[in-house]
Amino acid sequence: MAAREGSTFKRCGCRDETGRALGVRCPRLKRKGGGWSPSHGAWAFQYELPRTTDGKRRQARRVGLATHTEASEGLERVKTLLGLAEEDTEVQIADLIQIALQGRRPLPEVEEVRKRIGAGTDVRRESPSVREWLDGKPDLAEETRSSYDGHIRKYLTPHLGKIRVGRLQARHVEAMFAAVEEANVHVLECRESEDPKVKRLVRGRRVISLSTKHRIRATLRSALSDVVRSPDLPVSVNSASHVRLPSRPRKRPLVWTADRVRQWEKDGTVLGEVMVWTPEQTRTFLQHARRYTWLFPMFHLIAVKGLRRGEAVGLPWANTRLVDGQIDIRVQVVQLAWETITSTPKSAAGQRTITLDADTVKILRGWKRFQNEQRLQAGKHWNHTGLVFTRQDGSGWHPGQVSDWFCRIAKAAGLPPITLHGLRHGAASLALAGTDVKVVSAELGHATTHFTQDTYQSVYPDVAKAAAEATAALLRGEPVSVG
């Protein structure tokens, strides 16, 4: 091995009058007699390492040490480790030293490296495959685990599973997304084919959206963050963080204005991924929903207060205080495939208290009386779930069934299509039209008001018209009423 230079030195963070760091040139590092100051600066060492496999120069460097002894011992450890190297292990040992220093971890023990060399194994511990690492991911919330497992099974394992996490690069992940996009193109082309046999080839297959790609990357990035933090693996870069994907625009809701409804009635055009009804359309829906005694109170609560589907389905009477006119959101029912679990809201903001208006309190009181009557009639056949919204036998609703009934009632009412979550969007937009955004954000269970405004606020035509007329009145010099 060629001779290399190494040194120990002392430095500090002081700067001169121009703002430049003094480093080792600071006069305060030494006392007047010439000795080192024990109270100023910190010790460090550096050593020229063997070049990387790509031929790049690098140094072993550690700063912030308390004493000269620590710096000297660190330098000697680096020299000793490199002195163990044979011709074919020199770069591997240098990699091991570099990884430890970059991760701010202790340098490897000499005896451990010597044993590995003697056993003829790679000095660096071989990292597990992507498949092995993903399978051993730490515990996650059940709903998160479901999504996570889907990403692993459908995309990450088939495309990246055999690659060692220590050798995974951004180009591998980008190649996976390129393959996903090729599959998207194939699905679209088959759908447009006039040959029924070709169309059947892609029946049931969906196009993977940009949002889903971002979530897949987030899954991989989360898993690789644990790799980088692991003290036993030679990985210092999270490859998923360097993967290029087009930016994901926020899905802003669009209101079903009269023009948009006419276009939809003409050719079925739905302009946005998230559509919202006008207040008049929401009233029409609720009028039709009154025919469905066992569902109307739940749909009314979602339409007025913007509960999530799982929060409404899992709401217990124990958390519903009609005397106070308040509901405590503490549980939710989460759908995983068709199975369900009951859990707490994922975020602290999701656990909240909602204040009810007088009309909603009246509807819920009437519903409670009706439910109690049905419970007495059912007798021993009643399921005592303690839930606010139940089926005819007292059992809870399945979230998927509630969504299905919502779509059926909306269709029967002749309304343009929205999702049940769109009803939550509408409730948020109604509230934002006349209520402080902080209040609305808290009741919706959002962590920030920015998210509430950016994601849920829709401008209804009547509100926009009033604002436009107010502006015109100001230009005409006419007084404008506020409120």
Automatic annotation (TrEMBL):
The keyword DNA-binding applies. Residues 272-469 form the Tyr recombinase domain. It comes from the Bacteria. Residues 128-228 form the Core-binding (CB) domain. InterPro entries: CB (IPR044068), DNA_brk_join_enz (IPR011010), Integrase-like_cat_sf (IPR013762), Integrase_catalytic (IPR002104), Integrase_recombinase_N (IPR010998), Tyrosine_recombinase_XerCD (IPR050090). Gene3D superfamilies: 1.10.150.130, Intergrase catalytic core (1.10.443.10). Coiled coil: none annotated. Keywords: DNA recombination, DNA-binding. This is Site-specific integrase.
